[in-house]
Amino acid sequence: MKIWDRVKQAMGMMAVQERPLPAPVHPRVLLIIHNPVVGSVNSPFGLAQDKRKLSQVLQWNDPDALAKQYIFDVEAASFGYANYEIVERIEVNEFPVKADGFVYDAESYLFRWRTRTGFHQPDKVDYGRLLDQFGVIEKINADLIDEVWLMGFPYAGYYESIMAGPGAFWCNAPPLTAYNQCPRRFVIMGFSYERGPGEMLENLGHRAESIMTQVYRRKKGGENLWKRFTRYDLTHPGKAECGNVHFAPNSERDYDWGNGRYVLSACDNWLNFPQLDGQPRRVNCQEWGNGDIRQHHLWWLGHLPHVVGKTGGIANNWWQYIINPNLVK
What we know:
The protein is an alpha/beta fold. The chain has a domain at 19-195. It has 10 helices and 11 strands. The strands form 4 sheets. It has a 5-stranded mixed β-sheet. A two-stranded antiparallel sheet has the order 2-3. Strands 8-9 form a two-stranded antiparallel sheet.
């Protein structure tokens, strides 16, 4: 049984109270894939033809299949709220330019990857150049897109997520402050086709952590429900809730999603948000996939509040802030 089927089954067994869900949204995505040609194949006529892309030469994942799976997973985890649509897809036969002007070529990149040595530092891509090259600001201004997904290779220089636009704030990376001429904020995601859907969800999870921290920044003590949601046993013995992206309720170290140790957790309460008065129960890694990165992240994202109404002036649908940072005051 797939993890989301198990989550839905568990929710049914718990008799989760049915409440109205918010209307679905359909954020529009510009997908930019950096997948340069780096190899050659032999044609039936015995002539070398340069046709193999980096993802093919190194037998990495298909970028389009990853994007499709990510869209499916986000829709499921958000209870049908977030329905991403790729409205423009651009595949680029080139290596992106780094912030200091450095650019890999095919031979040097393949050597560095195969030897795991000599990668260029600083690694950061030139975001300004990318935004200009693909007319991103013009597309945001014309209300054609809502966010950008960069899909590339290890050491492409992308942040997992970064925010631009007026009042942009930390989104797992320092904000791009040079683009306040935009009418609204937008997020640029950075994915790698060397990795899988689980790592893409991890990028989203860190985006969620940054944005929800901003949403609750003025709430103190027990009013800060975000801090309560992210409790785990190592920091709050006997009072774990859902943990965070790196720490499950029972984790004892970073990425410890396969820990069989049982701890008390009130994680079930978040499926009945805003009612948080249920009793905790003993849980371990069987709840979130026994160490599988994608299954843990689906479990964690699936526990984010997602219903209509407000609590303490903040929407009971946290996904609206995660998907649209312009709703963060």
